[in-house]
Amino acid sequence: MDPFSKKLLEELEQMQQHTGRILRSMSVTRMMTMETAGWQPAVDIYEAEDCIYVYAELAGVISESLRVVIDGRQLRISGSRQLPAHQSIACIHQLEIELGSFQRTLTLPSSVETDGVISSCTNGLLTVTLPKRIRKGKVSIRIIPGE
């Protein structure tokens, strides 16, 4: 490959990386007006045969502030993230970490059994395991004669 083509290819790769960063920072969830002020953590939802797994990226979130609430098919995760105070900061060169309170409400793909929910937060990754509600087979319903 000639030097010009090689340099052109390198420039295109750098442009692709910069464009990816720009698009990630302008994601739809960040552009939408939120019900509450704050930021929204990245979340993945996986479905297995008998469970739903929810993973939330919560690096630096104060564990005492973390709450997970299930209401029907809605899962709400909330909490707060603050950086340690630095007394000697004179200038900020880069600012990307979102701070303050957050709340993220997710619609689950199916109904879950709330009694068997397990959650843990390790190394900044919240894992919520939600057992699916088991649907019964055929159910015979007794009809009461009317008057």
What is the helix/strand order? HHEEEEEEE
Q: Can you tell me the residue ranges where pLDDT is under 50 for at least 5 consecutive residues?
A: 29-34
Helix share, percent: 10-25%
Main beta sheet strand tally, sense and closure: 4 strands, antiparallel
CATH topology (level 3) name of the largest domain? Immunoglobulin-like
Separation, N- and C-terminal Cα atoms: 92 Å
Strand content: 25-35%
The shape, in one word, is elongated
Can you count the helices? 2
Radius of gyration: 23 Å
- The count of DSSP E runs of length 2 or more, i.e. the number of strands, is 7
**What class would the helix/strand composition place it in?**
alpha+beta
Largest beta sheet: what is the strand line-up?
Answer: 1-2-7-6
Q: Assign the CATH architecture of the largest domain.
A: Sandwich
Average pLDDT = 84
**Count of domains:** 2
CATH classification, class level of the largest domain? Mainly Beta
Give a structural overview.
This protein has 147 residues and is of the alpha+beta class. It has two domains: 1-32; 35-131, Immunoglobulin-like (Sandwich). It has two helices and seven strands; from the N terminus they run H-H-E-E-E-E-E-E-E. It has helices at residues 3-25, 28-31; strands at residues 43-47, 51-57, 67-71, 74-81, 100-107, 118-122, 125-131. Strands 1-2-7-6 form a four-stranded antiparallel β-sheet, with no helix packed on it. Strands 3-4-5 form a three-stranded antiparallel β-sheet, with no helix packed on it. Strand 6 (118-122) and strand 7 (125-131) form a beta hairpin. The protein is elongated and about 90 Å long. The chain starts with a helix and ends in a 16-residue tail after the last strand. The relative contact order is 0.18. Residues 29-34 have low confidence and may be disordered.
